[in-house]
Amino acid sequence: MVRVVPLGSGSSGNATLVAFGARRLLVDAGLSARELALRLEAVGVAPSSLTAILLSHEHHDHARGLERFAVKHRVPVFTTPRRSRR
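Structure (tokenized):
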């Protein structure tokens, strides 16, 4: 069974928890690191229990709390590689 829980959506920040089996993925981290942790805990998920964070793209409303949250909770981040500019 797959569990999908929107934690935030819109210009103020996007984040969605996707859980299946023992895996817990956070898709986007557009809220502050503190707010992400609070919302995850509110749905019964410890922030440090995340398997990974998947970043859909690097707009502020999708990545606001990414770096601080990932470092603090030691969660790996996956995103598309940065394109070189010519």
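The mean pLDDT is 92. The first strand starts at residue 2 and ends at 8.
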